[in-house]
Amino acid sequence: MDYEMASPNPWMTLPFALLLGALAFAPLLAANWWSRHYAKVALGLGAITLAYYIFFFRDVPRVLHTAHDYVSFIALVGSLFVVSGGIHIGVKGEATPFANVVFLLTGAIIANILGTTGAAMLLIRPWIRMNKYRVTAHHIVFFIFIVANVGGCLTPIGDPPLFLGYLQGVPFWWVAKNCWPMWATGVGILLVIFYTVDKINFSRARPEIREQETAAESWRFDGLPNLFFLAVILAAVFVTKPVFLREALMLAAAAASYFTTKKSVHEANRFDFHPILEVVILFAGIFATMMPALDWLGQNAGRLFGQNPAPGFFFWGTGALSSVLDNAPTYLGFLSALSGVAGTNEIGALLVRHSPDVIAISVGAVFFGAATYIGNGPNFMVKAIADREKIHTPAFLGFVFKYALPFLLPVLIAVWLLFFTVENR
């Protein structure tokens, strides 16, 4: 937040719009073509924006700043993906609706310790195995809602935008102290909705399937030495200097985990690098092409937001962009916009004078990250793993219209009414 925002040509938002359009419609209209060429599309559009910033607009510091954010994001997401892939959890076949609710609640809590990426990658395979006789789209979608997003709202480790806020100076425990009511409300309502949907699904299952799912099996844990590498990654979060030491420690822990984990554990998890490779490529394009959009937002914050916008504006504004951008840089963009409105980029001053607004930005970024596959890094990885397990998952638009709008949107409205209206300021 200490660099000066650029004012690029508005036409340079076109590559970002094209990339969003490709992500939304290409898998639906040309799935085979997209699977072969998505890297060319994402990296090609990103290269256009980078070339503009470097050679025409001559704002190399902006590019370097974005590159640093991208490397930090990928190092955290990628290292947690690799290390969690070295832990295999054997589950009991007790996928009753109540057992599923307990599992998801546990995942929401763990997400604040391992991050949404670590928790999602650790638990998605056991989650699929728990429900293997009747697993369907709603199991994957609500896992994304709760474990990969909303659950990680209590610590900077929990979700990438909060991690970036911590790097900007937000105290570690400030998030838990101020966001726990929203976390409890969001997770609680989602669990009630999931229980209702899952109970209907369970009641429709054939009797022999219900008997199979409640048959007694044993829990077992393999690859537990990887808990040490997880601890290294979590400790590295607190390393701030020198530059890239934090990321180097994370990647070193991931490499050590991968080469020391028994092959049988990786085979049991069907572990491979395809999900994280897809995230690395797609988010390289997203981080690059969204620079003009974020820069325009930062430059026009005062004119657009007025002198004293309500917390609800920041909740819906951050949230709406987080659902179509990655929520981590969107969080930084709105934090920067709030600094422009407040006339200071001092985090301590913002937390004192604009605490409700910072809370709204934090919750909006985390909760709305669940609204689309591109809202948060783990979403794509969960979908990729589910697809490789031959589980039916909705396409981009199906995710939005069949699940996010009817199930997630009411939760977001409830959180807004309870915590971010003018009366609750």
Main attributes?
425 residues; mainly alpha; 2 strands
Your description of this structure?
The protein is built from 20 helices and 2 strands. The protein has 425 residues and is mostly helical. The protein has one domain. Strands 1-2 form a two-stranded antiparallel sheet. The radius of gyration is 21 Å and the shape is globular. The N terminus is likely disordered.
Task: Let me know the number of strands.
Answer: 2
Please give the share of residues in helix. over 70%
User: What count of structural domains?
Assistant: 1
| SSE pattern, N- to C-terminal | HHHEHHHHHEHHHHHHHHHHHH
How many helical stretches? Answer: 20
Question: What is the molecular shape?
Answer: globular
Largest sheet: 2 strands, antiparallel
Q: Flag low-confidence runs.
A: 1-6
Give the class from helix and strand content and strand pairing: mainly alpha
Radius of gyration: 21 Å
**Average pLDDT score:** 87
Q: Roughly how many Å apart are the termini?
A: 25 Å
Strands ordered across the widest β-sheet: 1-2
Estimate the strand proportion.
under 5%
